[in-house]
TrEMBL record:
Keywords: Cell membrane, Membrane, Transmembrane, Transmembrane helix, Transport. It comes from Lutibacter holmesii. InterPro entries: AAE_transporter (IPR050144), RCK_C (IPR006037), RCK_C_sf (IPR036721), YidE_YbjL (IPR006512). NCBIfam families: YidE_YbjL_dupl. Belongs to the AAE transporter (TC 2.A.81) family. SUPFAM superfamilies: TrkA C-terminal domain-like (SSF116726). It is found in: Cell membrane. Pfam families: Asp-Al_Ex (PF06826), TrkA_C (PF02080). This is Aspartate:alanine exchanger family transporter.
Length: 527
């Protein structure tokens, strides 16, 4: 029993048991890492508590890494479908607010208690802060305590079971999402063409500016069985064979500009090297290929950029990111110099600089404490919102001077899991300690209202998002968890898929949902 009095021992015991239970599958469904919170609820009920410091430590790590990961995609996503996601979040929050008003008006429940119940059911701590501030009543905290346990559990269960209920396979939706991404980043192909167009014969590659005209890259030229590395001064002759790399549309333009496709491939040359090079040199991050000018300096050509599992056709305006994998073509004698420019040190991909992480979290905490006043209405992002916003901005920025804000996928995943486990264990024991007390004191009625406020808005948003907006399931799940401001819910979804679609949707709607909920709280308190 002495061991169970040690909070560190209890913390890792909860995590270990949670992992064992999370791997159990029943009809293909498992709780995965989310099982930790259910184990923690049981421990909390029996009086075992994890200090709040672990909850906040886990929360800041989890939210910051989500922001860093989603940052590069977030702003682009908001431009593309931000209005659609914001509309769905509005449907969910407004419907929850209407239900809360009905509970207060028709159920005869104390207004402050129902406002607290709303925030607990939507697991919104910033909303609770607004409720306490506007009502000035301790009943808001009690309502929050009643709604919160199912608010946490209900979202996890809903997002885990919803694909089964609507008979949609997550794997198929993931394929559809990846196919949509592929349309934005078409497959990179390579083909050979014979120079036969009279308009290009006798002209140099610099004069033709093929990359600008076609968006394809010439990676190799063969003249009378002699393989030549492309350069601006290289003059094309009739019958030359060129190797072009680019999208299907780009290669079609090469066909029109240069000549017909050829079955004759350009053989390898011992003095000519094609190699994958990693971008690990911080000095070239955020610089364009045109600024590096490796073609003129080393007669080297980048024919492909692989980033986050996607092949991108390079242009002189392509900005490099840390961890990009480049396919470089050049003379063997120059390859070492070209590799040195980009870094090409895979050891740097496995190392993590903790200064940007600490500095980013500190900035997020400070931003979260800032408040904006509009007369009697005061708004602040709070701890979660501040860190998420800063993480998104830093993830999008990538680099400031010598500081690299981004991190490798492996490092991000490790820190995220580490933070998530601490957060779930602490939240679970905290909620578990009051679960039976609140039930005995207020009975099933308020719990029932809390369950309705948690589930009905998600069901309504699912119907609107899936059947009217035709939203991809992964984006829908991320939108639901973001609208419910549910970090554990996002964790459950995050472990179901291998893409960042849910995290991007979550990060897009979370700030919107938080602001909307605070406004709804203000309106309800005035009714």
């Amino acid at each position: 029993m002495n061991l169970l009095s040690n909070s560190y021992f209890v913390l890792f015991l909860i995590i270990a048991i949670g992992f064992i239970i999370g791997r159990i599958k029943i009809k293909g469904i498992s709780l995965d890492v989310s099982a930790v919170i259910f184990v923690a609820l049981v421990f909390g009920h029996y009086g075992y508590q994890i200090p709040k410091d672990f909850q906040y430590l886990g929360l800041v790590l989890f939210i910051f890494t989500i922001g860093i990961q989603a940052g590069p995609s977030f702003f682009e996503s908001f431009k593309q479908n931000g209005r659609q996601l914001a509309l769905l979040a509005t449907v969910l929050i407004i419907s929850a607010g209407v239900l809360t008003f009905c509970v207060y008006y028709f159920g005869g429940i104390d207004k402050s208690l129902t406002i607290g119940l709303l925030n607990g059911s939507l697991t919104s701590t910033p909303g609770l802060a607004a409720a306490i501030d506007t009502t000035g009543s301790p009943m808001a905290s009690i309502g929050y305590g009643i709604g919160y346990p199912f608010g946490v559990i209900g979202v996890i269960l809903f997002v885990s079971l919803m694909p089964k209920f609507i008979r949609v396979k997550v794997a198929e939706e993931e394929k559809k999402y990846n196919a949509e991404i592929a349309l934005e980043h078409p497959e990179i192909l390579r083909k050979y063409y014979v120079v036969e167009n009279e308009n290009v014969i006798g002209k140099s590659l610099g004069e033709l500016n093929i990359r600008f005209m076609t968006k394809a890259v010439i990676s190799r030229v063969m003249h009378k069985n002699t393989v030549i590395a492309p350069s601006k001064g290289l003059v094309l002759r009739k019958g030359d064979i060129i190797k072009a790399v680019g999208t299907s549309d780009a290669l079609e333009r090469v066909n029109i500009l240069v000549g017909p496709e050829s079955d004759e491939a350009i053989p390898s040359d011992k003095n000519y090297e094609v190699r994958s090079v990693l971008v690990t040199n911080k000095d070239v991050v955020k610089k364009t290929l045109g600024q590096l000018n490796i073609l003129n300096t080393y007669n080297a050509t980048v024919t492909r950029i692989r980033r986050s599992g996607i092949n991108i056709s390079p242009t002189p305006a392509s900005k490099l990111q840390f961890g990009d994998k480049l396919v470089v073509v050049c003379n063997q004698g120059n390859m070492k110099n070209v590799s040195r420019i980009f870094g090409d040190d895979d050891r740097k991909l496995s190392s993590t600089d903790f200064f940007p992480i600490a500095a980013g979290i500190l900035l997020g905490i400070l931003v979260g404490k800032l408040s904006i006043s509009f007369g009697s209405f005061t708004f602040s992002l709070g701890l979660t919102g501040g860190i998420l916003l800063v993480g998104l901005i830093l993830g999008r920025t990538g680099k400031t001077g010598p500081i690299m804000w981004t991190m490798t996928g492996a490092a991000n995943q490790l820190l995220r899991q580490f933070g998530l486990l601490f957060f779930l264990a602490a939240v679970g024991t905290s909620a578990g300690s009051s679960l039976m007390t609140t039930f005995n004191e207020y009975g099933m009625e308020l719990f029932g209202y809390g369950i309705i406020i948690t589930l009905f808005p998600m069901i309504l948003a699912t119907i609107v998002g899936r059947y009217f907006m035709k939203m991809n399931l992964l984006t829908l799940l991320g939108t639901l968890t973001g609208s419910m401001t549910s970090t554990p819910g996002l964790a459950a979804v995050d472990n179901m898929v291998d893409t960042d679609a849910p995290a991007v949707a979550y990060a897009t709607v979370y700030p919107i949902a938080m602001v909307l909920l605070i406004i709804v709280v203000q309106i309800l308190s005035l009714l």
